[in-house]
Amino acid sequence: MPVKVKLGNLHCSVTEDSDYDTAYLTWDGIEIWRTRMEEGWDRNVGWEKRISRDARVELWDYDTVGEDDNLGGETIRTSLVGLGTQRARFTADEADYVLEFQVIPDWENLDNRQETADIVADGDRLYQRHKSGAIYQRVGSTWEVRDNRPETADIVADAGRLFQRHKSGAIYQYIGESGVHWRPLPGGNFPGTKQIATSAGRLYQRHGSGAIYQYTGDEDDPWVNLDNFPKTVDIVADGDRLYQQHSTGAIYELVRSTPHTWRPLDNRPETADIVADAGRLYQRHHSGAIYEYTGSGWRNLDNNPAVVEIATGDGLLYKRHFNGLIFGYTGSTWLLRDDNNRTVKVETSGGHLYQMHDTGAIYRERPV
What we know:
This protein has strands at about 5-15, 20-25, 30-35, 40-50, 55-60, 70-75, 85-90, 95-105, 105-110, 115-120, 125-130, 135-140, 140-150, 150-160, 160-165, 170-175, 180-190, 195-200, 200-205, 210-215, 225-230, 230-240, 240-245, 250-255, 260-265, 270-275, 280-285, 290-295, 300-305, 305-315, 315-320, 325-330, 335-340, 345-350, 350-355, 360-365. The strands form nine sheets. Strands 4-1-8-7 form a four-stranded antiparallel beta sheet, with no helix packed on it. The radius of gyration is 26 Å and the shape is elongated. By secondary structure, it is mostly beta strands.
């Protein structure tokens, strides 16, 4: 599958000619860029290309008399994808240049609507919610409408099930039947409901009071109370695990064997948010630091103050920087996945990685 090559800064330490070079770059023998270069100068090439095989970039000095001088070349390999900024050095004919470049995954555009407010992924299913409340699902290469009510506040999806929460607190499940597409959940019409979460066939709601409930499906007693702590500001579900985060930064895990019992996992005011998937729990601090829960403590994975979001799915962890950079964690290092400064959200599920831009555009990473 294709990757994208981006040629960045070209720095000249020593020119090939005594005064200046008329330097130009070729890509597999075809000229792509030209400029005047003097010693100590930097110039941004700003050229990019999608490739599916290795290619060669060469630096030349144009001569008005005789043949142009080849100052060296570098093979750009697709295997360098995600490894960050690379440097090619050209030193033939006593010149000395360095070209910075990156090989990053390519992304497929899925939609371009300014109305898009959020995206939610569930396996191979992708949904978007508009500012108007409209809900769409990606089907093949098109988007099919699933609902169009201005009351819709947010959507969640898991295990092939799609839910929406209204501003009134009402909760609905998509059933897709002809004439009746959404089923109101019994007891799911509490005005204090501020959040819904789902995983492994379980559905939860959090109230503004901090109360947490799990849906039972029983007509007489559809919701069972799990906690009533007023400092709860977020809940995260992962399989049969349920976590809550407090306004103090404290993190707790539900102990299912004992009713209304929560096990403390951490208590740091620096905690900004938590995410969980496949039995792994992560937290992001306001400082940008990222930690993974080990079962007995927390292991630090990153300390970059640029980090503003973390996302996880299928056992993989991603981070987004304030300038739109997306990185994936390999278990030992972070590899660049994209560098678009319009990115405002990262979503992942079913082996797919998605991003949403501040323009509403939606992209999916092409497999490498």
